[in-house]
Amino acid sequence: MVVESSELFAGDPDGMERLWTPHRLVYLNKDDDRSRCPFCVAPERSDEDGLIVHRGEHAYVIMNLFPYNSGHLMVCPSRHVATYDMATPEEVAEIGSLTQIAMRVLTTATGCVGFNLGMNQGEVAGAGIQEHLHQHIVPRWPNDSNFFPIIAKTKAMPRLLGEMRELLAKHWPSET
């Protein structure tokens, strides 16, 4: 991680620190995929490029691009469907099964001791992407939160997304 002090810039310092995140350039570049649902685009890519940990028959497991914690996963139906009540019984069953497996994999691979699970459906409920159903699985550890996000508006992430995806995919059981 590279953090630059504004004191190194020409002109008057503005007091802001810069956290360089070149991996987010994809959100600034204009391409055809920007207007499409990211949960529909991801499965069209390789697992590495799409940050997909596991593909099932009706649903898949993907890394969250804006994680609350390292290992923050989401389980999405493969079909573009907005809410849980619109999902088929097969999709609901596989989302539940993949959630259980993901919790076991995260526990084994990362040593987490708890989880936050949740689905925000609809804009008023806090869904960042409301058009495509997804369930969050956030691993938790003792003392995993601190003042940094509040004071510095920065979340310290000990592992890169690609590294975490590789670790979790390696631990995913082959018989699922």
From TrEMBL:
<dbReference type="GO" id="GO:0003824">
    <property type="term" value="F:catalytic activity"/>
</dbReference>
<dbReference type="InterPro" id="IPR039383">
    <property type="entry name" value="FHIT"/>
</dbReference>
<dbReference type="Pfam" id="PF01230">
    <property type="entry name" value="HIT"/>
</dbReference>
<dbReference type="GO" id="GO:0000166">
    <property type="term" value="F:nucleotide binding"/>
</dbReference>
<keyword id="KW-0547">Nucleotide-binding</keyword>
<dbReference type="InterPro" id="IPR052908">
    <property type="entry name" value="AP-4-A_phosphorylase"/>
</dbReference>
<dbReference type="InterPro" id="IPR036265">
    <property type="entry name" value="HIT-like_sf"/>
</dbReference>
<protein>
    <submittedName>
        <fullName>Unannotated protein</fullName>
    </submittedName>
</protein>
<feature type="domain" description="HIT">
    <location>
        <begin position="38"/>
        <end position="147"/>
    </location>
</feature>
<dbReference type="InterPro" id="IPR011146">
    <property type="entry name" value="HIT-like"/>
</dbReference>
